[in-house]
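We emphasize that the prediction below concerns an isolated chain of 114 residues; any contacts that depend on oligomerization or on bound cofactors are therefore not represented. The input was used exactly as deposited, without trimming of termini.
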Amino acid sequence: MKTLRLNDSLLHLHWTVLVHSCAVLSLLPLLYLAQQWLPQFQQADQIVVYFYGFSGLLAAVILAFYAALTTLNRLAHTTLELIPSHWHWLIRAYVHVPLLCLSGIMIYCSLCFL
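Result of the prediction step, given as a token string:
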């Protein structure tokens, strides 16, 4: 049985994709908590809560987007010489997982708060 052996740079790329995907997916509990807590405040206090919530969510989204872009940038520095050419498309598609998670969360957020 043949196995796919990855060099150290691709193993590091795999670890980076997993870590950044988990960082992006950690936005979901924040969105859920914001959705549950907002109706409990009075209308005058909601403006302040929305401001702080939006600021925190925006900071988290910017960090997640930056993490996903660093994952894409790491592919530019990764050597793919040890992998057969028919696996290159899979590695290039796999690098886009954090950005796909982030876009899915943004779609969820837009549908959830309508």
